[in-house]
Amino acid sequence: MTWFLKTKWRITAIALVFLVLLGIVFFPPKKVSPTTPSIGIYYYPWFNGDWEINHTNCPDTPYLGKYSSSNLSVIVQHMNWLEQLGVDFIIFSWWGKNSPSDNNTKLILNQIQKNYTDIQFFIMVEPFGTHWPEAYNDSSQTYNFSLIYDYIYNNYISKFSSNTFSLDGKPAIGFYDNGTFAKNVVPNDNRFTLTTIGNMRCPIRISQANQFAEMAK
């Protein structure tokens, strides 16, 4: 009887080992590929050189001096640094049609498209207020989001499509939520993946947003 029990347990053990090996052969464990996160930075393209007047909240002097964001040599140096650091995408602070940020972002993207093809971008819409009156109604303090979406799509996505940063298979677009957009429910647009950036605890009033827009001119 003892011999029989020992033999039975040996057979059972052999069978279990066989089943385990069979599972390893026919059902190998799923390999999980590590994903490398994309690295992005915020970029503010509205510095105009008169730092003592419009940028008094910046006490330090940049490495390149008190530069203008439209200076081509500054743009090239910034992009060289970003490329060397392995930055994947840039989030541009954007203050509406024909603002310095609008014009300078296009200058930067022209350089990226020609010489820095691995760098991608998306636009972060700031509360530009009365700077773009066609897209902002001062009396009702509301934005024309269709106009904003159309302008960004036609002037950025279509022209620089190879460098657009995508989320969920669509070009990304951001809105800086400082409280100004809180009373404007930002609608989705099927051409974009919408994301909200920078939810501040103390909302900035429309009047303050207009002051910031004036500074960014």
Give a description of the structure:
The protein has helices spanning 2-26, 51-54, 72-85, 100-115, 145-157, 206-215; strands spanning 40-43, 89-94, 120-125, 136-137, 142-143, 166-167, 170-176, 193-197. The model is unreliable at 1-9, 13-29 and 200-217 (pLDDT under 50). It has one domain: Glycosidases (TIM Barrel), CATH 3.20.20. The protein has 217 residues and is α/β, with parallel strands linked by helices. The relative contact order is 0.12. It is 38% helix and 16% strand. It contains six helices and eight strands.
**Architecture (CATH level 2) name:** Alpha-Beta Barrel
**How many structurally independent domains?**
1
- CATH domain class: Alpha Beta
So, the CATH homologous superfamily?
A: Glycosidases
The percent range for helix content is: 25-40%
- Would you identify the regions where 5 or more consecutive residues have pLDDT less than 50? 1-9, 13-29, 200-217
The global form is globular
Helix/strand class: alpha/beta
Count all strands and give the number.
8
Order of helical and strand elements:
HEHHEHEEEHEEEH
Residue share in β-strands: 15-25%
The biggest beta sheet, please? 6 strands, mixed
What name does CATH use for the topology?
TIM Barrel
Mean pLDDT: 80
Q: Report how far the terminal alpha carbons are from each other.
A: 96 Å
Number of helices: 6
CA-atom Rg in angstroms? 27 Å
